[in-house]
Specification:
The protein is an all-alpha fold. Helix 5 packs antiparallel against helix 6.
């Protein structure tokens, strides 16, 4: 499977996530967590909702403010730890794909006009290196039902009144259950008309942070730009992956702030994981200070020059001595 098809599949998965989050309706109104209406709620949604309520009450009993927000963060950490083995395989697969890019460019230059031959040679290259081009999509597919389950769980908890309003705030965000499903993105126009700048800041700042962290993660998954030549497929993939965070940033403006908090914390943890496995990646192209300094090569260069100079002097002295002896 070539790189372009792999990119299309990845973007398709992200579009499915966007469609689910924006088009499907979770249960609203009064909710009984002990009486799930279906199998999906019984297996995924209501267990997450119960865990969220239990953690919120536990943190509140310890006298810690913003208990709902911290409960969401703890659930995010638990989910990250549970999916760590798969995430590690994903990152290792991405690293292996980055290491194969020079050879892939050679194949593109050699078989660029013959797409079928190029695809065959790339598959041979992947088999020889033991790399699965689709290895990076599996964790995303697994996290999809978790994200959708948490989305529904937030609405379910909001319908139980088990979390009081005082525990729903998180620093500058008044209510992590807002905006509701009925409100959607309507609050944006209403807040602009009312010139409620505090509300606009409260509920747009977190989506902006999510957008930035998502861009950081996606940039780190890409290989740094090489000095020679341009990879048109890599450029196309970079443009598509740049568009996706913007789309998701807009979608989160109509979702509960608690879900955006989960997404943001998950992105921050992904940045940490990505760094320890693959390094900064293409993020060093945006921030030159992150590029590794070749201090060893810089210090070694003068030594080589001195040694070469000493050799030149020693070589230049020998003919002089020989000439003197002949004379």
């Amino acid at each position: 499977m070539n790189k372009r098809l792999r990119t299309v599949l990845l973007v398709s998965v992200l579009l499915i996530i966007a469609a689910l989050l924006s088009g499907c309706s979770p249960a609203t109104g009064t909710v009984d967590l002990n009486n799930p209406p279906g199998v999906w709620e019984q297996i995924v949604v209501y267990p997450i909702a119960k865990a969220l309520v239990w953690l919120t009450n536990l943190i509140a009993s310890l006298g810690i403010p913003y208990s709902l927000g911290w409960a969401i963060i703890l659930i995010t950490v638990v989910i990250k730890l549970a999916t760590l083995p798969l995430t590690r395989k994903q990152l290792q697969s991405q690293k292996a794909m980055q290491d194969l890019q020079p050879k892939q460019k050679e194949l593109q230059e050699k078989y660029g006009k013959d797409r079928q031959k190029l695809s065959e040679e790339q598959m041979k290259l992947y088999k020889e290196a033991g790399v699965n081009p689709m290895g990076g999509c599996l964790p995303l597919l697994i996290q999809l039902p978790i994200l959708w389950g948490l989305y529904q769980a937030l609405y379910a908890v909001a319908g139980t009144d088990l979390v009081p309003l005082a525990q729903r705030s998180f620093f500058w965000i008044p209510d992590l259950f807002f905006p509701t499903l009925a409100v959607g993105t309507k609050w944006l126009g209403e807040a602009f008309q009312a010139q409620d700048w505090g509300m606009l800041f409260a509920y747009t700042s977190l989506p902006i942070i999510m957008l930035v962290t998502q861009m950081l993660v996606q940039k780190m998954t890409q290989a740094p730009k090489s000095k020679g030549g341009k990879d048109t497929q890599a450029q196309m993939m970079g443009q598509m992956m740049f568009f996706m965070p913007i789309m998701f940033g807009y979608i989160t403006l109509g979702l509960p702030a608690g879900l955006t908090l989960y997404w943001t914390v998950s992105n921050i943890l992904s940045v940490i994981q990505q760094y320890f496995v693959t390094g900064w990646g293409a993020l060093a192209d945006w921030i030159p200070a992150l590029k590794p300094k070749s201090a060893a090569s810089q210090t070694a260069a003068p030594v080589v020059v001195v040694q070469d100079a000493a050799r030149i002097e020693s070589v230049s002295d020998k003919p002089v001595k020989r000439n003197r002896r002949r004379r």
